[in-house]
Design goal:
Layout (H helix, E strand, L loop, with lengths): L3 E6 L2 E6 L4 H7 L23 E2 L7 E2 L10 E2 L4 H16 L6 H5 L4 H8 L18 E2 L5 E4 L8 H9 L5 E4 L6 E4 L15 H5 L5 E3 L14
Parallel strand pairs: 1-5
Antiparallel strand pairs: 1-2, 3-4, 6-7, 7-10, 8-9
Helix pairs in contact: 2-4
């Protein structure tokens, strides 16, 4: 019989299998903890830190990688937590393109959706030229790459390597020059990419989008 632990999340009790993360435990309770780097289909890596919660420790904990403990009291929506998330969102928006290719096509840019949910229309840290240093790679006939919109969440890399096992994508560069790369840092169209589309499907921003949808806005029909 598997060992279990009991804890409370936002005052609600839950018992889960030992090793379950706070994010998964909260999901069982129907409590939504925002994430950009995590997806239930992939192993958690705790890169974006938007899922931080208050466990009573000195520092906020990343819920997607923090295992639950017996008697733990978790708070997901305190002012401290919200303030931290808003700051992270502002920092991510600082260099984000003025127009997201994902928002223009499928309308499901997760970064912009989270920013709006936290009352942010723009970042106070952004410069006058929000697209300075932007780089797009349109060498693939299927997928458009907008490096300026990349937040280095690694979902595309894990989708390519862990879900599809194509082993095409990685990171390259250091510091501010860090970027997603294909093979030995060649253009996507010149790489061994098989155009399966997994990377653009799991990307939460406008960094990787389906080129066939560009110029086409997909909207939900309004219910009478």
């Amino acid at each position: 019989m598997s060992e279990t632990v009991a804890l409370t999340i936002d005052g609600r009790s839950v018992r889960v299998t030992a090793g379950t993360t706070i994010w998964d435990a909260a999901r069982e309770l129907g409590i939504d903890i925002p994430v950009l780097c995590h997806s239930p289909r992939m192993r958690p890596v705790g890169v974006c830190r938007l899922c931080v919660v208050d466990t009573g420790a000195r520092n906020l904990q990343a819920a997607c990688v923090r295992p639950c403990e017996e008697g733990m009291e978790v708070h997901t929506d305190t002012e401290r937590v919200q303030r931290n998330r808003r700051m992270l969102l502002e920092l991510l928006l600082a260099d984000y393109p003025r127009e997201s290719l994902r928002e223009q096509t499928t309308g499901d840019d997760e970064l912009l959706a989270l920013a709006r949910a936290h009352g942010l229309d723009e970042s106070r840290f952004g410069g006058d030229d929000g697209e300075a240093g932007a780089g797009r790679d349109d060498s693939s006939p299927v997928i458009m790459v907008d490096h300026q919109a990349c937040i280095l969440c690694d979902r595309c890399i894990r989708g390519c390597n862990e879900l599809q096992h194509n082993q095409v994508m990685t990171r390259s560069g250091k510091g501010a020059a860090t970027h997603i790369a294909f093979d030995l840092d060649v253009a996507m169209g010149a790489s061994t990419c098989v155009a399966c589309g997994e990377c653009q499907a799991v990307c939460p921003t406008g960094a990787l989008t389906n080129r066939r949808l560009h110029g086409l806005q997909i909207v939900e029909e309004e219910t009478p």
